[in-house]
Here is the input.
Amino acid sequence: MNIYIIGAGIGDSAHATTLNMGQGACQAIEDAFVLSECLHKYEITKAFSEYQKLRLPKAHQVVKASWLVGKMAHLKNPILIGLRNQMLRLTPTSVNRKQNELIFQLAEI
Here is the structure.
């Protein structure tokens, strides 16, 4: 019973990420994986505290990045749109690859 009540806040609804990066379900799946690993490795109270310590920083990073992508994607000022497009063209592929690595990297438990 306690597990259900405590665990009910995890996943997609807990992170409230925007749709801009398609990460809502991905983060929910990662939440489930990390929580199951923590429950396997630790006693229940420590498992949930470790889960939060591992997941919150990354989840917040994804939420903030998704929000920023959305803001940039929905610009209305033609000058800002031109600047955004130029910046995206000039951004090296290695920068995009590094950002993706951070998003898709799993926490070590």
User: Anything to note?
Assistant: Residues 44-73 form the longest helix (30 residues).
